[in-house]
Design brief:
single chain; 4-stranded antiparallel beta sheet; alpha+beta; Double Stranded RNA Binding Domain
């Protein structure tokens, strides 16, 4: 009587019970596809503070986030919001910044003219600079200008060192910029001659 022979058929690599594992590959593909999508705006957290509110049972601690959002071109926005934890505060501040974005008039790689503006105790001065100068700024002003398309600019922060007020003063200064075409001293474009006058001269 012949003895039963064992099944010596080789199993595929990475298989359990004769079934290939394909699920892990699908998850990795989904994850890689999600990471490949480019972001439209760049988000930067400038500052996070822990704030307290006194209630009947004691103190209630929360977090306040200051976030700037920009598209590396001519749009930028600043948002401030509070949350029970850091991630919630950052997410809410980012939404506020995206809702309050402004458009900056840019001349080449710099701003069209200088502006000095004050918000509360913070005073910010921004000035155009020659090509190759870079962004001469520090702290909050540099963080905000860094997410825009401005590459050459001079700035000075005066007065208060409150980061929220400096951020709002910087945004208001950028909002106050006037494009070169709208200046009162800008040269006016000459109007083209009318077609009727040209025909009469030809006759």
């Amino acid at each position: 009587m012949a003895e039963p022979t064992a099944n010596t058929t080789p199993r595929p690599a990475g298989a359990q019970g004769g079934r290939p594992q394909q699920r892990g590959g699908r998850r990795d593909d989904r994850r890689n596809g999600a990471d490949a999508e480019p972001k439209q705006f760049e988000e930067l957290v400038i500052n996070i503070d822990r704030v307290a509110r006194v209630v009947k049972g004691g103190r209630r601690f929360r977090f306040k986030a200051l976030v700037v959002v920009g598209d590396r071109k001519n749009k930028v926005g600043v948002g401030v919001s509070k949350g029970q934890d850091v991630q919630t505060a950052i997410a809410k501040a980012t939404d506020v910044a995206k809702k309050n974005m402004i458009t900056i008039p840019i001349e080449g790689d710099t701003i069209p003219h200088d502006v000095e503006l004050k918000v509360s105790g913070a005073q910010v001065l921004i000035k155009p600079a020659a090509p190759g100068t870079g962004i001469i700024a520090g702290g909050v002003v540099r963080s905000i200008i860094g997410v825009t398309g401005i590459r050459n600019m001079l700035s000075k922060s005066l007065g208060s060192t409150n980061k929220v007020n400096i951020a709002y003063a910087t945004i208001d200064a950028l909002k106050a910029l006037v494009p070169r075409d709208e200046w009162l001293s800008a040269p006016k474009k000459k109007a083209a001659p009318k077609k009727a006058a040209v025909k009469e001269e030809a006759k």
